[in-house]
Amino acid sequence: MIRNFLKISISLVLFFGSTAVTFSDERWEKGKSAYLSKDYATAIDILLPYADSGWSIAQLLVAQMLGEGGNGISEDLPKSAMYYELAAEQGLLNAQYN
């Protein structure tokens, strides 16, 4: 139940986040699209630099993918926890519950 809530919340953050903040970066859009289509191998390659540069939404998505594993990437719980913590420190509510 909590996983479903988080997936719905992440989808809402992606939808509303991309309209509230202007992301003119085509790579970001490609990474977000890969995430939504569960092409995690492509998504992680694209979104990881955004997460490492401090984008909280990218940190949340990377954390979720690493925590879940599959779809082209290996599960990495310590890294997942690190990215959840980074996103939570920036006030991203969805990350604070992981």
DSSP summary, beta strand count: 0
Please state the average pLDDT score.
81
Low confidence ranges: 18-22
Tell the overall outline.
globular
SSE pattern, N- to C-terminal: HHHHH
Name the beta content range.
Answer: under 5%
Q: Tell me about the largest β-sheet.
A: none
Number of helices, where a helix is a run of at least 4 consecutive DSSP H or I residues: 5
Terminal-residue CA separation:
14 Å
Radius of gyration: 12 Å
Summarize the structure.
The chain is mostly helical. It is 70% helix and 0% strand.
Question: What would the keywords be for this entry?
Answer:
mainly alpha, 98 residues, 5 helices, globular
Give an overview in words:
- This protein is mainly α.
- The chain has five helices and no strands.
- It is globular and about 25 Å long.
Helix/strand layout:
Layout: H1 2-20, H2 26-36, H3 40-52, H4 56-68, H5 77-89
Helix pairs in contact: 2-3, 3-4, 4-5
